């Protein structure tokens, strides 16, 4: 595996692209928005500089990684000659299916097509292609360069060869992979969404302040980040889409907390908008 293409240059896409390029993969980042690609380029430049400052990369290694990355608005150009294509767009099934149909058309016959979905069915996505055995879900975690886990979720027809190559890819990135059988929410999102949603209910009920609930989880259960802080980092709009999907597929216990719905309606999307459960503009 030599060339990896990333479809979507948002928070997850640019993190995946950075990790691929610094692991010596030829990397192409595709997005329909030029401004999003420019934001991605700025992020990667900043991360390369920080990595050099921290001694994680030499100047030469950072320069080489920079040379390995290409940016394009053309999905056909991105998929061309790719060995692995990773879709990292919004958690909207119709959007993912449309992208996979295009990737199936443009990517080489041997290419693996992966979705970075945190909740949705790789079987349903793969069924829209002519290569379901080569489709899989690779669920990265934010921030991608720091987080060590990749959930490898197999669809109904995913082949053992595709699974093995996915594990080898993860190892090259310096990640640990776990194999999860497909079920809505997989392992991490299924548990994490429940914890975060209950924390939101506790805020709404006045059980404690946002800060104290997060502190209790960090110090009482040794979580590195509180559930409300984490939801702000992920994006409250993203979390709401996840909760709505899990509520639809797994039932009542995943009903989104009303305060989450209210914040998204107000445009309080978390860290990326400057306001969520915390105020980042101060």
From TrEMBL:
Domain 3-hydroxyacyl-CoA dehydrogenase NAD binding: 3-182
Chain sites annotated for binding NAD(+): 8-13, 31, 91, 96, 118, 142, 272
Pfam families linked: 3HCDH, 3HCDH_N
Any one GO molecular-function label of the UniProt entry: NAD+ binding
Coiled coil (UniProt feature): none
Ranges where the 3-hydroxyacyl-CoA dehydrogenase C-terminal domain occurs: 185-280
Site residues, Important for catalytic activity: 139
Matching InterPro entries: 3-OHacyl-CoA_DH, 3-OHacyl-CoA_DH_NAD-bd, 3HC_DH_C, 6-PGluconate_DH-like_C_sf, 6PGD_dom2, NAD(P)-bd_dom_sf
One BP term from GO: fatty acid metabolic process
Pathway the protein acts in: Lipid metabolism; butanoate metabolism
Keyword Lipoprotein part of the UniProt annotation: no
The entry's keywords: NAD, Oxidoreductase
Domain of life per record: Bacteria
UniProt entry tagged with the keyword Oxidoreductase: yes
Similarity comment text for this entry: Belongs to the 3-hydroxyacyl-CoA dehydrogenase family.
Identification of the protein by name: 3-hydroxybutyryl-CoA dehydrogenase
Organism this protein belongs to: Mesobacillus persicus
């Amino acid at each position: 595996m030599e060339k990896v293409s990333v479809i979507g240059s948002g928070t997850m896409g640019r993190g995946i692209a950075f990790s691929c390029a610094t692991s010596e993969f030829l990397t192409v980042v595709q997005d329909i928005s030029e401004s999003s690609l420019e934001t991605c380029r700025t992020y990667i430049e900043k991360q390369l500089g920080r990595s050099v400052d921290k001694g994680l990369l030499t100047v030469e290694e950072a320069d080489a990684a920079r040379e390995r990355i290409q940016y394009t608005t053309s999905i056909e150009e991105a998929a061309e000659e790719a060995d692995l294509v990773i879709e990292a767009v919004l958690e909207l099934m119709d959007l993912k299916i449309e992208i996979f149909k295009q990737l199936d058309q443009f990517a080489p016959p041997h290419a693996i097509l992966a979705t970075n979905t945190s909740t949705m069915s790789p079987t349903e996505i793969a069924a829209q292609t002519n290569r379901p055995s080569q489709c899989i879900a690779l669920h990265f975690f934010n921030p991608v360069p720091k987080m060590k886990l990749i959930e490898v979720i197999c669809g109904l027809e995913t082949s053992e060869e595709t699974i093995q190559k996915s594990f080898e890819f993860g190892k090259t990135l310096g990640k640990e992979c776990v194999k999860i059988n497909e079920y809505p929410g997989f392992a991490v999102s299924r548990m994490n969404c429940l914890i975060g949603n209950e924390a939101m209910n506790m805020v709404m009920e006045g059980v404690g302040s946002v800060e104290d609930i997060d502190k209790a989880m960090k110090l009482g259960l040794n979580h590195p980040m509180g559930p409300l802080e984490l939801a702000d980092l992920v994006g409250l709009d993203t979390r709401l889409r996840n909760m709505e999907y899990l509520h639809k597929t797994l039932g009542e216990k995943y009903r989104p907390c009303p305060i989450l719905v209210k914040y998204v309606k107000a445009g309080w999307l978390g860290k990326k908008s400057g306001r969520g459960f915390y105020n980042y503009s101060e």
